[in-house]
Specification:
This protein is an all-alpha fold. It is 75% helix and 2% strand. Strands 1-2 form a two-stranded antiparallel sheet. The longest helix has 27 residues. Keywords: Membrane, Transmembrane, Transmembrane helix.
């Protein structure tokens, strides 16, 4: 309750700060909206960590495992959020997809901010997965899961609410395996943040941007590899690979429009204006 009481007004203040600073971009309808609002995912969690550490030292010490997991998660979240923020602020929005970024590198010998984001995101994923894996096989599987998760959420964040609703939907498969400690110290605070951000995203007031999609992909990937059984991790890896290959050939938005139930789900909760 204390956490929600703090982040609710904080999010509104951040929205007005973004507007004043001119941190905006054109959305898919060519409307000027706040860009990179997914920065709040990290800010909210940093505030949550501050509250938890205060309680840890003053009242109720946390288990060492919980502290180590939270520290690794926070490091990952900060790194991915920073990479996304740099791309949102100074990246080239015209270059899209693997072909676009690698084509720019090959043809012009120029590394785009998107490609740099992918390279450094891969390094972050490797560091995280090395800490969490107990064998080389797990390390490879976990790395694929985390990297593909970041990429998929980046692909999904092209329409209002799509990335956030996908996070909720994907998380339903993982939550049954999540420990009570992770549920309290990771899943619930992130869920609160996504609900708050959905209010801005669904009304086309703000976009998560690469800042939010990188963070959200990292968050889901982390939850997946920490708690889900290996078979479920492998299933998500295959699913994400299929989506990645398909996205290079067809538009995900166009494909959703062709399937009624996906179109209904994609439009759920959105405000038409």
């Amino acid at each position: 309750m204390i956490y929600m009481g703090l982040v609710w007004p904080l999010t509104d203040r951040m929205y007005h700060l973004f507007q004043r600073q001119g941190w905006t971009a054109l959305n898919y309808k060519q409307e000027v909206v706040v860009q990179g609002f997914g920065l709040n995912l990290f800010i909210h969690y940093a505030l949550f960590i501050g509250i938890m550490l205060t309680l840890h030292f003053l009242a109720a010490p946390l288990p060492m495992f919980t502290l180590e997991t939270i520290s690794l998660f926070a490091m990952m979240l900060f790194s991915l959020t920073s990479l996304g923020w740099i791309d949102d602020r100074w990246g080239d929005p015209e270059v899209k997809g693997f072909k676009g970024h690698f084509g720019k590198l090959v043809a012009e010998k120029h590394m785009t901010s998107g490609l740099a984001k992918a390279v450094f995101g891969l390094l972050v994923a490797l560091v995280v997965c090395w800490q969490l894996s107990s064998s080389y096989g797990e390390f490879m599987l976990f790395s694929l899961a985390l990297v593909l998760s970041m990429h998929i959420f980046n692909l999904l964040d092209v329409r209002p609410g799509r990335a956030l609703k996908s996070y909720w939907l994907f998380s339903l498969a993982v939550i049954p395996f999540v420990s009570a400690a992770t549920l309290l110290f990771l899943t619930l605070p992130v869920l609160c943040s996504t609900v708050l951000l959905f209010g801005y995203d669904r009304r086309r007031m703000a976009m998560l941007g690469d800042t939010g999609s990188m963070a959200l992909g990292g968050i889901f990937g982390f939850q997946l590899i920490v708690h889900a059984p290996l078979i479920l991790v492998a299933m998500f890896v295959i699913f994400f690979m299929i989506l990645t290959i398909a996205a290079e050939r067809i538009s995900i938005s166009a494909w959703i429009e062709q399937h009624r139930w996906l179109k209904l789900l994609d439009g759920w909760g959105l405000v038409k204006k």
